[in-house]
């Protein structure tokens, strides 16, 4: 274990590759055999990308954004022994209401998967009179029960914290419009019961740097550290040739995560490989989950690539925390409370 301690279970069988010797400008390195999920992975599904995974019963399980051959995105369940090779259910996840009756969203995309106490929560973007956040819970990955939509439209990129803070569930989100939103900051909201949300706070504004100057959005569930929360998020720039999605990193205050303690002015990963630069939507690296091992400090980042594939990248808690701190610039727009 390194110096930076992650407050989470040990996951000794997590996927891992050592840092290659010859890389520059990279606190994060890609899995050599990327992408880990290619095109047409399931009958009726053309592409899987922007997906979230979690350790489960000694193996791994995940909720995957499957773009069906009719063009409608939906959530598919996948299982894996090693976190790299995945078997997908042929049928999409069936959501039910509290009475057990079918309650399917019109569509569902960019799912996140977060365990809080003994329950797993799936959070996605769906249709509620426009783009909005949908949510469901499961304990066994057999029954998926919808819970109230947390926020009014329009909103995307909702990410739950993996534990309550000061007795409340916490969720990041990114209010938006219903189209290809050309703006957006990350906010945080609190709830005692996952039904009523409030105490909304601004967390981070889009950055000054070109790579995140248009909009930002939460990515993977924050990783708890001894003295903060490590957040991987996406930052978007609007070039003359369209949007470019890169991965950024920040450290939020442990007791009040609306306070940004450090924010990396440099991207951690930006589209460079063929599977990131070429695809249904070129130039997209979109993080949705990590698997991390507190015993070794290893972190695996799962990200959607070019709206076509799933990629895997690695770092360590020591390396990423030092990199973020060494390259940190926070600004006035980074937090409503807790200005430096
Ligand atoms: C965003 C979301 C993501 C997608 C990205 C790039 O608005 O829809 O699912 O990866 O655009 O197309």
TrEMBL record:
<dbReference type="InterPro" id="IPR007184">
    <property type="entry name" value="Mannoside_phosphorylase"/>
</dbReference>
<comment type="similarity">
    <text>Belongs to the glycosyl hydrolase 130 family.</text>
</comment>
<protein>
    <submittedName>
        <fullName>Beta-1,4-mannooligosaccharide phosphorylase</fullName>
        <ecNumber>2.4.1.319</ecNumber>
    </submittedName>
</protein>
<keyword id="KW-0328">Glycosyltransferase</keyword>
<dbReference type="Pfam" id="PF04041">
    <property type="entry name" value="Glyco_hydro_130"/>
</dbReference>
<dbReference type="GO" id="GO:0016757">
    <property type="term" value="F:glycosyltransferase activity"/>
</dbReference>
<keyword id="KW-0808">Transferase</keyword>
<dbReference type="InterPro" id="IPR023296">
    <property type="entry name" value="Glyco_hydro_beta-prop_sf"/>
</dbReference>
